[in-house]
Protein 1
Amino acid sequence: MKFGQFNLYIVRECTFKLDGGAMFGVVPKTLWEKVSPADELNRVPLACNLLLIETPHGRVLVETGMGIRWSEKEKERYALKPLIDGEAPLRSLGLSNEDIDFVIISHLHFDHCGGAVRLENGSLVPTYPKAKYYIQKGEWDLAHNANPRAKGSYRLDDFEPLAKAGCLTLIEGDSQVVPGVAVKVSGGHTGHHQVVTFSSGGERGVYFADIVPTRFHLPPPWVMGYDHFPLASCQIKSVLLETAHEEGWLVVFDHEMGVPWGRLRAAADKRFEFLALPEETLSFKLPVKSQS
Ligand SMILES: [Zn+2]
């Protein structure tokens, strides 16, 4: 999709499932199951939507998804279905791994960082060998020293090889990656979780990552149980949504199963409604079931 001088693409890397209670935090199941029905194991369907931003200053890939380094047992646990070629995740767009100049990872949970590295002749190497990987230093430190509640979402193998390969850029705070593409520390989901903002030719947009993972998470109190600082998530979400609505930003959801980008419209009780862009803006087909 054209976006000022940029081209934007959604890469649907996989679909998977997580426990509905964990996805919706303190929201009672009687409310969330109306919008996101659970399967017999109480899991709700999710996707990993990567955002590719082509800019005059290089190609920026936002997130890397789950990757393919999972055992059969784990695949079953998460109902994980990779939708990309694990060796060349962007092949469907006609791009090779060498074509990516920058990778931004919102935080190091395995569903965001699992695709950052791949196996080559028995060792783990960066999937995008020419890219600089932008990660918050605070998130990096946490991932190496997480307490027992936080630990389960991190796998050292997903990101340690980046440091060894010398392609890691650890940033501290808000920062510009290329002209028009920047990261902003949101906190909330993890203490140093970052969202990505992008603007070109008068258009503006935001990739919320896990601050607003799906359209069902638009109401500020609908915060994931996984969040380290749920009250901060609720707060920053309200601020981001208000700005995005006021200024007509494109909003992008990382785990949405339907069309994951669109605009916001004001609804009752100071809430916002999501107006998805037409499905034709996507370079892949949605499963018919997920469009409801
Ligand atoms: Zn996460």
Note: The longest strand covers residues 6-19.
Protein 2
Amino acid sequence: MIEVKALSFSYGSGGPKILKSLSCDLEQGHCIAVLGNNGAGKSTLLKCISRISHPQEGEVLADGGNIYAMPRRELAKKMAYVPQQSLRSHTMVFDAVLLGRKPYIRWDAAAGDREIVTEIMEKLELLPYAARYLNELSGGELQKVVLARALAQQPGYLLLDEPTSSLDPRNQHEMLRIVKEICDTQKIGVVIVIHDLNLAARYCDRFLFLKDSELYSYGGMETMTPETIRDVYGMETEVIEHRGYKLIVPL
Ligand SMILES: Nc1ncnc2c1ncn2[C@@H]1O[C@H](COP(=O)(O)OP(=O)(O)OP(=O)(O)O)[C@@H](O)[C@H]1O
Ligand SMILES: [Mg+2]
């Protein structure tokens, strides 16, 4: 479990508080959607949890250990983080995904590492791109590659910041289906920042709403209500059920 304890964060000293004493438990075996409007602090929260940013107050524990005191290699085996925007470089796709194995490699990648990478790339339909370069991919193709790298890390916790923002509808569903399947079968903890409420409702089972730098609510499907959506996004919706799925329909 990742325990977020009274986390407060601001960019620079004296700046506005982006997160105000935020506490929550992110449990393994769950797919947790982080929701809230632009600028609410979703990416900042993910960066604090993955040690990219250091909060001024509070702490983050992963399986009981303070992440800010953990050796880098140990943290990398525990958590994989995919940022909202990924850098493109002149790296071959296969090598980029193989980089996910870095925490496990002592000198050189073993056959087992290459096998894991091939399997994940096959699952994400990326094998035809193996010999292409990152800086020659479309936005959606790149997004799939960075997810593949995170999965190659075989983390206990997968932190994804808007992983479907550049994907076409089929790929959005495919990616989230694969992530959910890994969450269910391997009992890892998945935290996804996402704006599409319908995708969140379909693939996630916990919903963490941020509003005005604070935790607005955190709970199961019962928390996805028109009242919450109105309070958090300032938008009127109807929440209906269709074929067993909740659908959020703007009015
Ligand atoms: N490096 C930075 N320096 C100063 N302020 C920042 C920095 N990064 C983000 N902010 C500010 O912090 C607030 C929260 O930003 P954050 O990126 O966490 O929002 P978000 O919820 O992820 O939004 P979005 O949905 O647009 O991605 C915003 O007001 C933003 O302008
Ligand atoms: Mg963001």
Note: The two ends are 38 Å apart (CA to CA).
